[in-house]
């Protein structure tokens, strides 16, 4: 059994998620996705690599929910290998807010709920 570093594990997880989410008509192989994510993260400072993968995943979710990428079964989506091209940095861009409708991630929902609870607790002290 191969033991992966936390970064390699996150790359594999993010690659699988992005690959499964991307419009099938514009997908490349999952091995290519892992290779591109590895190249992208190697260009970033070590302490920012895991958060960069989260940002890429979130941006991809936004693009996949955008009108441009959902139109005609994803026909107008960028090819996944093109979107993840390390030198083009398209993965850092987000679609216009009006086009992107994304549900909150589990972490975002937890933070939002914790914030509401904290505010309620603070309100009770006044």
Please give a structural write-up.
The protein has one domain. It is built from 6 helices and no strands. The chain has 126 residues and is mainly alpha-helical. It is 59% helix and 0% strand.
Structural class: mainly alpha
The count of strands amounts to 0
Inertia-based shape: globular
Kindly, what is the distance between the CA atoms of the first and last residues, rounded to a whole number of angstroms?
A: 56 Å
What composes the largest sheet?
A: none
SSE succession: HHHHHH
Determine the strand fraction and express it as a percent band: under 5%
Low-pLDDT stretches are none
Helix share, percent: 55-70%
C-alpha Rg, in Å? 17 Å
Q: Output mean pLDDT.
A: 88
Structurally, how many domains make up the residues? 1
Q: State the helix count.
A: 6
């Amino acid at each position: 059994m191969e033991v992966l570093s936390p970064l390699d594990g996150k790359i594999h997880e993010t690659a699988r998620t992005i690959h499964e989410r991307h419009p099938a008509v514009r997908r490349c192989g999952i091995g290519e996705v892992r290779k591109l994510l590895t190249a992208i993260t190697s260009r970033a400072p070590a302490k920012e690599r895991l958060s960069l993968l989260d940002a890429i995943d979130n941006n991809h979710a936004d693009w996949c929910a955008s009108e441009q990428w959902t139109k005609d079964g994803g026909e107008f989506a960028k090819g996944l290998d093109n979107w993840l091209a390390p030198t083009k940095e398209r993965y850092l861009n987000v679609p216009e807010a009006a086009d992107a409708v994304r549900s909150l991630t589990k972490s975002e929902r937890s933070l939002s709920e914790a914030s509401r609870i904290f505010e309620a607790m603070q309100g009770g002290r006044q």
